[in-house]
């Protein structure tokens, strides 16, 4: 079995603004970042895959993903790659 996690998203665009010649506008700049995370587990030998699209990459989301993996692959023995 192989697992992976990826981050997909966008960065906000910083754009210029118009002002009369000789005046430098004072404008706050905000960099917008929006992401979504895709978690996937694949078992090529079994021809099975499971995945979740989640809003964050943290312990809570990983636990949700691992719960999904255990439900979808519960009848199979899954061993750690190094163990």
How many discrete structural domains?
Answer: 1
**DSSP strand (E) fraction?**
25-35%
Cα(first) to Cα(last) distance is 13 Å
The residue fraction in helices comes out at 10-25%
Overall body shape = rod-shaped
Question: Which segments are poorly predicted (pLDDT under 50) over 5 or more consecutive residues?
Answer: none
Largest sheet, described in full?
A: 3 strands, antiparallel
Mean pLDDT, to the nearest integer, reads 79
Arrangement of strands in the largest sheet: 1-2-3
Helix/strand class: alpha+beta
Round the Cα radius of gyration to an integer and report it: 22 Å
Describe this structure in words.
By secondary structure, this protein is of the alpha+beta class. It has one domain (2-13, 26-72). Helix content is 17%, strand content 34%. It is built from one helix and three strands, in the order E-E-E-H. It has one helix at 59-72; strands spanning 2-11, 33-43, 48-54. The protein has a three-stranded antiparallel β-sheet with strand order 1-2-3, covered by helices on one side. Strand 2 and strand 3 (48-54) form a beta hairpin. The protein is rod-shaped. The two termini are 13 Å apart.
What's the SSE blueprint?
Blueprint lengths: L1 E10 L21 E11 L4 E7 L4 H14 L11
Antiparallel strand pairs: 1-2, 2-3
């Amino acid at each position: 079995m192989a697992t992976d996690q990826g981050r997909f998203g966008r960065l906000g665009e910083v754009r210029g603004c118009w002002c009369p010649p000789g005046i430098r506008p004072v404008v706050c700049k905000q960099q917008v970042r929006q992401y979504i995370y895709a978690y996937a587990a694949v078992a090529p030998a079994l021809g099975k895959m499971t995945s979740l699209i989640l809003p964050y990459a943290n312990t809570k989301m990983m636990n949700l993903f691992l719960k999904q993996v255990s439900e979808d692959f519960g009848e199979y023995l899954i061993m750690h790659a190094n163990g």
